[in-house]
Amino acid sequence: MLVAQLFDKPFYQVEKQLSRLKKLGVTHVLVSPPQKSHASHRWWGRYQPVDFTRVEGPLGNGDDLYRLCGAARKLGMSVVADTVIHHLSNESRWVRIRGNRILSAQYPRFCQNDLRGLHQPGRGRGLPILDTQSPWVRSELRNYLRMLYDIGVRGFRFDSAKHIDPHLFPYLLEGLPPLFNFGELVYQEPDHFPQEYWQSMKAYDFPLAHSIHRAFSWNGDLGSLLHPKALWGPHSVAFVNHHDLTRNRRGFSPFRVANLEDRKIAYAYLLSCGHGVPLVYGPDIRYREVKAAMKFHSQVLGWSQTPVAASKTHLVFRRGDSALVGLNKSGRPQEITAEIEPGCYRDLATGWESATNHGRLHWVLPARSATLLLKQY
C-alpha cells in the first residue's frame, strides 16, 4: 500500500491526478475533510465542521466526491477521507464564546447541550468540543461515516483521535466492512499509544518520524535507522511530511526534517525500507527523488531487508537479492561495496547503470544523495 495526501485540493483536481499517481504506485488517496464547514476558504476552515449531513464547500459537493471515488475505483485505487469528529466551528454565526465559556450554540444539527467545553489547539478562540457520550451526537457521527461510505469513500483519517474516546470508534464503524482507517495520535514513544485504538485503526507513526528527525539532525546517527524506535507491525502509517508538519512547524518540530535535501533522502529511506504503510505528502511528489522512491517501493514490496553498511553519515541495505539502497547525508562521497545478485542495475533516482558478473557491486555514493538500485536483467 502507498498513500498520497492531496491536501486541500478540490475533488475534481484530485480526480485529474489519479492516473499519474497510479503509475507511481499509489493505492490510496487522502483528501481533506469533505463536510460543510467554516465559511473561510483557507485550509483550516475544513477542520471546523458545521454540518455532517452535507458534503459542501471549496473542495466540492457530494456529486464531485462520488465521481472522484468512482474514478479511483476504476483504477483499482481507494479514496480516504480526513474526518473531524472531535469539535465544531467557532464561527460567531453558530456559537457565542466568551473566554473559556460557551454562552450559546445553534448549528444545523447540534445545540449547546451537545457540547462539552472548548478545545484550545493554539492561539485564538477555542473550538466547541462535541459530547461523544451523547446518543444524538454518536448517531450523527455514525451516520456521517456511513454517508461517506455510501458515496464511495473506503477509509478514514481521524483528526485529533488522541482526544477522542477509543471506545467510540467501534460503534461508529460497526456494520462497515474492513477499511483503511488511521488516527492522529501524537506520541513520541511506541508504548504510549493506548492499545484500545488498534481494534479500529492504524496511526501516524510519530515515533518513527521522531527517529528520522534525530537521525538527520546535526550530529545525528543515520545508521540508527537500521533499528529505529517506531510503531512497527500493522499499526504504522509512516511519514516524512504531512500537512500538520508544514502548517504548524513549531508545534511539530520534533518530527520534522526541515532541510529539503535531507527530506528527499529521508523519503528514500521511508519508501525503501518496507516499514508500515507509507504516506507521501502531495507537494513533495514533484521532486524527482521522491518519485523514484515511490516507484522503488512498489517494485520491492514484500522483499526481505538485509543491512550492508552503516555509519553516522551513511546507510546501505539490500532488499531481497536484487535491489540495493544507499543513503548519504554527508557532504562527502562514500565508496560502497556490496554483495548482490549478478546482473545489470539501474539507479531509479538518477538513471545511472552498472553491471556485475561476480555478485559484488562497487560504486561511489554521491554526497547528500540517495541511490536506489534495482536489477533490470
Radius of gyration: 22 Å
In the CATH classification, which architecture of the largest domain applies? Alpha-Beta Barrel
Structural class: alpha/beta
Broad CATH class of the largest domain: Alpha Beta
CATH superfamily of the largest domain: Glycosidases
* CATH fold description of the largest domain: TIM Barrel
Shape: elongated
Summarize the structure.
This protein has 8 helices and 22 strands.
Explained architecture:
The chain is α/β, with parallel strands linked by helices and about 375 residues long. It has 2 domains: about 5-300, TIM Barrel (Alpha-Beta Barrel), CATH 3.20.20.80; about 315-375, Sandwich (Immunoglobulin-like), CATH 2.60.40.1180. Helices cover about 25% and strands about 30% of the residues. It contains 8 helices and 22 strands. The protein has helices at about 10-25, 60-75, 135-150, 170-175, 205-215, 245, 260-270, 290-300; strands at about 5, 30, 35, 50-55, 80-85, 95-100, 100-105, 115-120, 125-130, 155-160, 180-185, 200-205, 235-240, 275-280, 305-310, 315-320, 325-330, 335-340, 345, 355, 360-365, 370-375. It has an 8-stranded parallel beta barrel with strand order 1-2-5-10-11-12-13-14, surrounded by 5 helices. The longest helix has 17 residues, at about 135-150. The two termini are about 25 Å apart. The model has no long low-confidence stretch (mean pLDDT about 95).
